[in-house]
Amino acid sequence: MGRFAGWLKNNADGFFALLIAATVGLLGVLDVLGTGEINAAILLTLALLAATLLRDRKTASNALADLSAVRLVNGPEVGRVHAEAHHETEQWMFKGGTGTYLRAVTLKECVESARRAKRPLRVQIEIIDPANESLCNEYAQYRSSLAPGPDRTGETWTLDRTRKESFATILAACWYRQRFAFLKIEVGLSKVMTTFRWDISSVWVIMTQEDPSAPAILFEKGRPHYRAYSRELVASFEQTRHVDIARAKELRLSDEPTVEEARKLFALLDLDLPGSFTDRDVTDLVRRALRPKNPYW
């Protein structure tokens, strides 16, 4: 009985249209109703049927709208979606591994777009902690297991590379902050790794994986998923070890920071570089920060 009541609630207009049509048809056969009454009943039935069709069309339209709010994109299209998202965004939230693509493309394009439009830009970055050797080693092993051998940059994933990539993202954040006054940038260092990369602009949530052949998932702003994932990244960032970027103001970084400048910067940020890092390693770190290779597209 309860199941029928639920069905009737969702299909009341169609049910009553059918009931009226059947009743009028029966009474017409029995010659109980006159022509005027039958015509009036027919009009009422048609009105109910029209209401049913309009309701079903609205339901279908809402379903299509919900479906279009989630998209799957592959290959080069992922790069195009990122480029569109960079163009007009006023914010960018990132959570991922070491921020390699963030440095290679996202930071540069978002800052250039904001500078042209003379608008503020807020960036939140969450990457793995380069001081956490075991975590960096775990991440390097994970990346190597996905694709043994060199990736599209021509390099393999090792402990040293992982640490350099994370340090490079921190250096890049400070470098861009000093060159665009309307950039507010925050960096948090996570003690756990994620197998997904999250990018949130003013319009899209873009979820990708470290494997460039895997499809990306897009969620449009205004939909529940966009708000939910935005909250997720805010909550996750609050649990990280925050880097005090403001301390970098004490040191003006050159257009091409020197080894000495890089070492001083990380000392100011309470992020001393590993003792095993030679000057050559630091030079490589600076290159990764300012002239990184696009690892995906």
Annotation keywords:
297 residues; eight-stranded mixed beta sheet; 55% helix; alpha+beta
Structural overview:
The longest helix is centred in the first third of the chain and has 34 residues, at 35-68. The protein is of the alpha+beta class and 297 residues long. The protein has an 8-stranded mixed β-sheet, sandwiched between helices. Helix 2 (12-29) packs antiparallel against helix 3 (35-68). It is globular and about 75 Å long. Helix content is 55%, strand content 15%.
Please provide a brief summary of the model.
55% of the residues lie in helices and 15% in strands.
Q: State the helix count.
A: 10
Helix fraction, binned, reads 55-70%
Mean pLDDT: 84
Biggest β-sheet description: 8 strands, mixed
Instruction: Give the helix/strand class.
Output: alpha+beta
Subunit organisation of the chains: single chain
The rounded Rg comes to 29 Å
Q: Give helix and strand order, one letter per element, not per position.
A: HHHEHEHEHHEEEEHEHH
Number of strands: 8
The low-confidence parts are 60-65
Tell me what portion of residues adopts beta-strand conformation.
5-15%
Gross morphology: globular
What strand order characterises the main sheet? 1-7-6-5-2-3-4-8
Q: How far is the N terminus from the C terminus?
A: 58 Å
